Amino acid sequence: MSVRTVRQLLKQNGFSRRQSQKKKSLKSHAQRDAQFQRISQLKSEYLADDQPVISIDTKKKEMLGNFYRGGKLYTREQLEVLDHDFPSYSEGKIIPHGLYDIGLNKAHVNIGVSCDTTQFACDSVAHWWETQGRVDYPRATRLGTSEK
């Protein structure tokens, strides 16, 4: 039986190609709304008191090397990359870690090579504080974290 025949039979019987959709939620936590309201309240209080509030986000690990990357670049010549993205050809991995200062609408990005993402996240916050946070918030006594 050919691929074409199988496709036709599937279509005749109401089947079509579909992608899964994340729509089913897990059990709802009884105090979920209260938690988010409290976080929002704290964020407003911190910002009103000129205290820093940051949002922290770790992005997907990327292999270093001459690999294909989605998107386009402005270049003078065509970029040629390896035809396969095997980890054995990688020069290592990087982890982009972003911090967003909600009050000042400023972003700070660190690039790390650590496998310990928890330690790297802590190091990123410390680096942000030493290089930017203490400059922008010289009278800060607290640091808030939140979603954007």
What does this structure look like?
The chain has 148 residues and is an alpha+beta fold. The protein has a domain of 96 residues. It has 3 helices and 5 strands, in the order ααββββαβ. Strands 1, 2, 3, 4 and 5 form a 5-stranded mixed beta sheet that branches. It is flat and about 75 Å long. It starts with a helix and ends with a strand. InterPro entries: Transposase_36 (IPR011518). This is Rhodopirellula transposase. It holds the Pfam family DDE_Tnp_ISAZ013.
What are its keywords?
single chain; 148 residues; alpha+beta; flat; Rhodopirellula transposase
Q: Can you lay out the helices and strands and say which pair or pack?
A:
Elements: H1 3-12, H2 32-48, E1 53-58, E2 62-63, E3 93-101, E4 106-112, H3 117-136, E5 144-145
Parallel strand pairs: 1-5
Antiparallel strand pairs: 1-3, 2-3, 3-4
Short description:
It comes from Caballeronia calidae. The chain has 148 residues and is α+β, with helices and mostly antiparallel strands.
Oligomerization status of the protein chains: single chain
* N-to-C SSE string, H for helix and E for strand: HHEEEEHE
Q: What is the rounded Rg?
A: 23 Å
Distance between the termini: 53 Å
Helix content: 25-40%
Number of helices: 3
